[in-house]
Each structure stands twice: as C-alpha cells, then as structure tokens.
Amino acid sequence: MSDKTILVWFRNDLRIHDNEILLEAVRKADKVLPVYCFDPYYFQLTETGAHKTGNFRARFLLEAVADLRKNLQGFGAELIIRIGTPAEVIPQLAEEYHVSEVYHHREVAYEETNISEQVEAALWKMRLNLKHFIGHTMYHKEDLPFPIKDIPDSFAVFKKKVERDSSVRPVVPTPDHISVPEIADAGELPTLQQLGLTDPIDDPRATDYFQGGETAALVQLHKSLSIVDGFTKQKGRNASDCSTKLSPWISIGCISPRQVYWEIQKYGNNGNLLKLELLWRDYFRFMFKKHGQKFISARNQAAELAADQDVLFDKWKLGETGVPLIDAAMHELNATGYISNQNRQVVADYLVNTLKGDWTKGAAYFEEKLIDYSPASNWGNWAFIAGVNDAKESKYTIATKLPKELEAKTDFVNTWQPSSIDEAGDLVEA
Ligand SMILES: Cc1cc2nc3c(=O)[nH]c(=O)nc-3n(C[C@H](O)[C@H](O)[C@H](O)COP(=O)(O)OP(=O)(O)OC[C@H]3O[C@@H](n4cnc5c(N)ncnc54)[C@H](O)[C@@H]3O)c2cc1C
C-alpha cells in the first residue's frame, strides 16, 4: 500500500454525507487530513465600514465547523482548524504532513474562485495538485444537456431542457472509516471576538433559531419536508406559501442540494415546488460559471439613480421608509439574519424601483446580513430584480406588490408558522 496523505480542504461543504472529496480521499489515500481555514478576508470591514460577514452568519458558521469536527471525531478523525489565508495555510499544512494532493469543491463566484487560484498557484510551486470536484449543485455539470458555454440564459428554457434530458445523480456513500495522520496541533475554534465580531443578540420575536451544522441540517430536512407535505395536502392551501428554511445549511454545505432532492422525491408531487427552487439555485451558479462577473455587471444600473439615494438607502436598511411591510421585513433581517424569499423580493424591488437606489449596495447589505448568504444566489437574484439581466422571468413579477400588500399588521410580519403535524398528517398550527 502506498504511503499517501490527501488534504481535504473543507469550504462550503461542511458535511460528512454526500461529500465526494471526503469519500474519494478515503478511497485514494492511506491518510486523510481534514482542514478548515477561517479566512480573514471574509471577516474584514468593507469600504462602507460594514462587516463582510455579519455576526448571525459568523455564529452559524462557527457552529457548523464545530459540528463537523465533532462528526469527524465520531470516525476517529480530527479536523484541523486554522485562522489565516488559505494560500498560506494549505501549503504549510501540506508540507508539514507530507501531503501528496489537495482536494476541494470548485466554487463559481469571483472571490471564491480567486482564493482557489491563489491556493492552486502556491501548491503548484511545491509540485502539488489541487484537485477540483463538483459538489455544490443538484445537477452535476457533466450531466447537463449542454456545455457550460451554451447554457440557455433564460431560466424557462434551462428548466425545460434540464428536466427533460438530465437526471440527478444518487448521493455518494458516507465513508465507513477515516484514517488521519497523527496531528500535533488541531487548533481551536475561534471566537466571534477573534473574528472581529460581537455576539449577536437573539430577538425574542424571531420564530426560528438556526443552529449551524450537519446534525441540525438533517433534523431540519426531515422536519421541514414533513411539514411541507402536510401543508400541501390541506385543501385550499398553496405549496408556494411554505418553505423549508434549509437555505442557511445548504449555503455552507451542511447538507447537499442532491441529498435534499432525493429526500423530496419521497413526497411525490408535493415536493415539485421545492425542486423548482433548487433548480433556481443551480441556475444562478451555472450562470456565474458561464458568464463570470459579467453576469452581474453587464449593465450596472437599469434605471437612473435618485439624487438623494444615500439618504434613502440608509432609511431602507434601517427599516425607516414609513412603508410598513418594507420596514417590518428590514427589521426582521437586521434582527435575525433571515427573511422569506417573498420579502427579499419585495424589499429589493422597493429599493431598486421605488427608491431608485443602487442595487449593488442592496446586494452588499444582504451579503453582510443574511445568515444564508451565498454569492451566486444573492447577487444573481438582485441582478434579476434590478433588471440588469433577463428580468422577464415570471417568478419576478411577484416582486411588484399591490399597495394594500405593503401594509404590515405587525412588525416582524410572521406569516403562517406551523409547529408540528399530528399522527394523521394534519398540521397543528402554533
Ligand atoms: C434579493 C434576494 C437575495 C437572495 N439571496 C440569497 C442568498 O444569499 N442565499 C440563498 O440561499 N438564497 C438567496 N435568495 C433566494 C431565496 O430567498 C432563499 O433561498 C430562500 O428564501 C430560502 O428559504 P427556504 O430555504 O425556505 O427555501 P425553499 O423555498 O424551501 O427552497 C429550497 C431551497 O432552494 C433554494 N432557493 C429557493 N429559492 C431560491 C432562489 N430564488 N434563488 C436561489 N436559490 C433558491 C435555497 O437553497 C432553498 O433553501 C435570495 C432571494 C432574493 C430575492
């Protein structure tokens, strides 16, 4: 047997299940070195003085990395944790542990691919290979009915062809053992303060607590799908009114979209709407792969900006516009890091089309605040709403609200919130 160690560089794939880099490393090497690196780049202050990663998302990430470490320990393995630039940390560890190859999942957005390239270049100087895997989408790139460069820009055409000609691969097995080399210093999980942040204050009005990690993701998967299923079975209720709230876990890969897909399959047609949502997610990622930064910056602003847009933007972000639904949604975002898809569309549409604000500032604000921030989904959705891409898709017509719908009955507009389903499969509402 060869004496081979493969470094598994965890990034937005913080899971054991359906994780091809982990499985392949176990299969190809004698020893596996699992590593997570807290990159200071993501915790810096932006030009506007905001945090690139807000404290709700940072806390969620810390919980997810801690859970990954615990789950790896269940296999007798250990996760090495470092704070530092991956282009320095990964080569240092590769040298220290005599690694012969590094595995990671390929990203699509500019900043993430840039970091991969820096790591690749640094490893290359050591004659080491960074091997890229595909693992962030529901459909595998190789199974699409067209090469990336020919992916239809229209979501409707993309959907029609993919659903007709492609299928989702099965999840990959979970390794039955993981052998790691002897690790001298596994490293401590940083605190929020070490990352330059303060502890978030949990608002008593929040209806959900998002606990980071694969363990919580699997609980949420089963809980939310049985609720959605029960909901869709009820007469007069529309599946589009409920959601899984899985996005924070999917965004950093505590669960794979493929695993969610196969779980949804068990619910027959009641899961179709969720598959459609996951397809939107794939679509944005593939658009970034095809167009790169041009996908969001082809035409910077569709509309003319208001002269006093800075003042209006501050009112928007603080929830001080005077429009009840907009303000309630922004209060909820600021206090919890999460708002529904519909409210995201409404507040984004309001900033762009009513206040004539700069959509890129709105997207950057969401980047800081959202607990489920994901570059392709966030910037892709904003670009659509701003009309700098193909904004004629029907999904985005709901962003235009009737005046009456802009009235919120209370602050923190809590839409329907089931607490459980009974034995007959009916919902028991909170
Ligand atoms: C302006 C704006 C910004 C957004 N920013 C993000 C973001 O940073 N990260 C993010 O994950 N989603 C983003 N979304 C998409 C969507 O709002 C969230 O994914 C959704 O609210 C998550 O709720 P859920 O998990 O209950 O979704 P469900 O309805 O249960 O859908 C299942 C999964 O499909 C994916 N999904 C659903 N809708 C979309 C969509 N429109 N675009 C892409 N993926 C989708 C998510 O991974 C979600 O968890 C944004 C939408 C808008 C309008």
Automatic annotation (TrEMBL):
PROSITE patterns referenced in this protein's UniProt entry, alphabetically: PHR_CRY_ALPHA_BETA
Give the note describing cofactor binding and stoichiometry: Binds 1 5,10-methenyltetrahydrofolate (MTHF) per subunit.
Query: Which keywords accompany this UniProt record?
Result: Chromophore, FAD, Flavoprotein
Give the protein's cofactors. Answer: (6R)-5,10-methylene-5,6,7,8-tetrahydrofolate; FAD
Q: What is the originating organism of this protein? A: Mucilaginibacter celer
**Protein family according to the UniProt entry:** Belongs to the DNA photolyase class-1 family.
Annotated Photolyase/cryptochrome alpha/beta domain residues: 4-138
Example GO biological process:
photoreactive repair
Taxonomy, superkingdom? Bacteria
Its biological purpose:
May have a photoreceptor function.
The record's SUPFAM superfamilies line, in alphabetical order, gives: Cryptochrome/photolyase FAD-binding domain, Cryptochrome/photolyase, N-terminal domain
Positions that bind FAD: S243, T244, K245, L246, S247, E277, L278, L279, W280, R281, D282, Y283, F284
Single GO MF descriptor: deoxyribodipyrimidine photo-lyase activity
> What name appears for this protein in its UniProt entry?
Cryptochrome DASH
Which Pfam families is this protein grouped with? DNA_photolyase, FAD_binding_7
